[in-house]
Structures
1.
Amino acid sequence: MDAQSLRQGDSGDDVRELQRALMQHGFNPGMIDGEYGQGIVAAIIAFQSSERLLPDGLAGPRTMFALRLVDSNTLPSPIAGVTVEVVSRMFPATPICNIKANLPPLLSSLLTNKVADKPIILMALATLRAEVECFEPVSEGQSRYNTSPSGHPFDLYDNRRDLGSAILERLFLALLAILSLFSALSSSRAAAAETSAALERLCGENPDLVQATREMKGFVPATAVTNALPAEGDARIVYRTRLDSANPQRFHIFEPNRAAQPIVVSAETTTSAVNDNFPSNESVLLHVRLPGDSHVWPLFYRRDFLVVECAAGQFRSWAMIQAYVSSPSVAYLWLPVSVTVFLLSTWAVSRSRKAILKVSTDGKLAEKYPSVFSAKQFKPIDYINPIQLTADAFNQASVQKFQVLMFSFIVGSLVLSLVLRTGTLTDLSGTLVALLGISGIGAAVSQVTYTSKTRLSFENWAWLQANRVLEEQAERGPQWKDLVLTNREFDVYKLQTIVFSVAVAVALVLDGAAHLATFEVPPTMLQILGLSQVVFVGGILVRPPATEDLDKALTKLRDAAKTYSEAAARNTDVDETGKLVPGTQSPVTVAVHARRQYEELVGSVIPMIESTLEVEVNEAALREAPMNGGAFLRPPVENCAV
């Protein structure tokens, strides 16, 4: 093309070539008539927005270069327009002789240093207007602030990083990096400019197609559905045409300069609009398998494709597509990301278990209500053990938390893999959302039900801990056996939940990331998963009220201990109903009945604690619990010497 820039109102062959280029890139400028009208302006603005250029509707050098109409995107130098007359209007109070004398050296210096673009020229002139409006050199003048006593003039400015030298150095290095990047991009665009010739060679056996590509006949818009097309995966391209049931079409896709060519796997009518240019039921969705490259890097690279529509053995339409293609290797980045998230999660759990209770626990981790066990500290193997992330309030593995953890990691990894491959966040099927909802809600409900059903009241739990009744218990953490056992009993409700959850998880993995939007679980399977959650919660509710009975017994034991301590403090005793007897007793009979009643309750509570909580009771500590003033209560009167 001869013209370096075009604007509204221009006409001729250059405008006609511009219209064809816009049509080839999928931006319809209207009739190809060689007139730069509103249709071209609208198409240019849309194209400039897609290429992140200034959307001004003008076909300048950068827009022309992006359309492959010119070989360079270099803007015309504005130096020619910077004349003495123009600058004198910007410096009305400056003698014109100074401008004539000093403007040429200024412009020459800008050209020599390759900073002669319009913004830099304007900034240079603005600085001169503000600092030296006379437009002639002015010496700063030597002083003790810029020149040392025995140094050369202005030597105090040398190597002064605090004056900006270090910043300028960093900016220069950054500029070099940016220029290198632009150079690489320019090389890739130059390589893409050879596409048209390669397409002619590729389609040389079809004169109709060659003529159509040259004259833009039969051209239709087409684009990639996702930001990147996955190589060796389900690449989807939308093509602006309708399927003809009376005269079925065949679609072919070609890629220049490649031995292995893409394959169109299937074609279907779009059921939803991809964007404004591709409305539903008026476009065709092509499922394409793109051959991958042997190299691993770069993970994303730009490729050109020619899509051809044929019917009855005759050429009908064609489209040109430029799209980024992702390497199959990029999909495996989900693995280090998932492993990192998992290790950070286990590390956070390990840190929470290192909250040491000082002095009283002698280095053991503090028990946390409602658990009666100390949390087990992490061993090296525990950092890679997923069961550690499923601990409930009792330091046991929760099957519901395991279910949520499993589905979250599987779905999250698949979504991440697909995003890395296509650059687009995929939709999730309604079945998958229901599956995650069932597991999440089931985990929350079962956690609340199990905790409320199997925990002691806070007062009784604190009383046992304060009196060290359960102090000698071993540390405990979640174990795999907790997923199928409850109180040393095989739990079929847990087994049912695990079996169906694992079955669905395996199906989800085998179906792959590409089918997350269409993944379906049979309705009966969803019902079974929901019922398994209901049955599990129901199983908790119908269990014998052992913990509730123990809680009542401990409350009664605490009351007896309180009565025993009070009777001993008042030198009295209690009657058969446990009420304090008025007055005082002889030293031999003080609190005899109160202690006997407390001992009887201790004897019945010990087996209840060991059976319900599955812990061994420190019987001596339990019998000595009712203390007064730090002294243990006296032994039974039957053992005292009279």
Note: The first helix runs from residue 13 to 24.
2.
Amino acid sequence: MATIGQALTAPENGWKRYNDNDILFTYSGILMEQTLIIINQIELF
């Protein structure tokens, strides 16, 4: 079992890890759009 702040290098027993950059994942909605705008602004500075 992981503790807070510990990096998980592999999924824990009973869990699967998915690549969130996979083309099968789609993100939509206002929150996602606002988050991307904030991230893009931070990367510019």
Note: Residues 20-45 form one domain.
3.
Amino acid sequence: MKKLLAKTFVKAENEHLLESYNLIQLHKHSFNDLEVYREVQTSNNKRIDILAVSESQKAVILIENKYKSSESDGQLNNYLNFVRKKYSGYTIIPIFLSLDSSVPTNKEYFILDYHDILDILKVYMDVNGDQIFEPIKEFINYYISILQDELVRDEEDIELALHIYKKHKDAIDFLYAVHNEKADKFISNEVLTQISALSPEDKFGIDKIYLNYQETINFIYSVGNSIIREAFLEFVFQNEIPEKCYRDHIRVPSFIFPEWRQLDEILGVPKEEWWLNNAFIIWFERIWNNRLKLTVEVGPLDYEERLILLNTLENKGVKIKEKSKENGAKYTRIYTSAVKIENWADKREIIEAMNSLYNKKDFHAILTAISGAIHDIVYRQNPMTK
């Protein structure tokens, strides 16, 4: 459970929720007394998929699992209200687990997907596989293989879905948004205006059309809105970023540079699951107002090593808040920039935007500062290095 929480807390999609939690205290929790309940019935006769309770730590983890299904109206609100009433005074961590990082309607839920579960299991088996009872080991490996089969999309299906979405974007968005209010963030104002003008009877009729083709529409919409991954793969190819230095996540693709690995042996790597397991990370993400954002961040190293890195970066001109140097601080954002995307169905435009952000002078100034900091740290470790 600690690994699952660690993976949840480091996802970029969940950053806005972290300030509501005492991460240091949660990290210290052993959760040895954790009791896990399945299909917990609420006061409205709904059923929570998974509820994990630690009485000693006064903590509750609520997991709503959506595997090839979508949430029903008010479902997440109902679950959270029920748990808050039943476990008043507890720290409550609601998690929305889906196949592809779907956005929950209730913004208080953390986002987690089965790619994350797969990563956790693979790392766990790599480290502990030889010590696990053989039948359990076989079961976990079998489950890993099932997940891999489910998560690897057929390339022809993706290309076809992307082709349909590019030709009929407004129609797909219209059908999807009539049924899914959570889609508003990424749909044009023109489509939203059309939807707002619909009568209840019209909405009901259109929703029936959507429900008849729900699986197909959802797949086309999700592929169309994961075009950032397809663009990112072309971006890393154009800029010759090695395969071991990037992750083509469907929502927040990330990368580092090979020379940054020099710090791994000197300062160590993050102790918890964190991006590409380096002191630094760079990622792209789609944000509000149809903008593409580039972020550079320093991650959760051990305190002494992290302080060395932050002080060295500061000496190179990078602005570091004093709060970031406190014992217990884990993540320090040192650069962000964003650019408007006119058409999120146009892969070429997204690639151009990625390259535009990548080639900005202030971004390269940060990269120069990072390179200088790495040089100074490596040189101090080995004075013969130049």
Note: Strands lie at 35-41, 47-54, 59-66, 91-98, 110-113, 246-247, 254-255, 280-287, 291-298, 332-340.
4.
Amino acid sequence: MRDVCAALSAEADGEGELVARGEADTFYLFLQGAEQPQIVERLGRMAGKLANLRDTIGPLRANTGIYCMQPGEADLADAEACADVARKSVEKSYHNTCTFYSESIKNRQRDMATMLY
């Protein structure tokens, strides 16, 4: 997993950006101020670097959930939860995925919670 962390860290090299390993094969990325196209481009480069590791550690894929924090928003636990919901909202795939947390995901999550009560 060190090689994976190094590959991700090489791309998350801006001021205030970081890569942290969560549990098992989960990594958290904090990337600074970019619009969706730039985020997707950066994640594409990261996925390419992960693909280059397949000869040494086997095939890898990146299933990415993204939550864009607003200025002044500081609750990282909520941001991580929203990104995780976005990641899990995509059907399982052998391909890399990148999903942004959106109003439709938020509404679907609220509707599911309402049905449970």
Note: Strands lie at 18-21, 27-30, 63-66, 97-100.
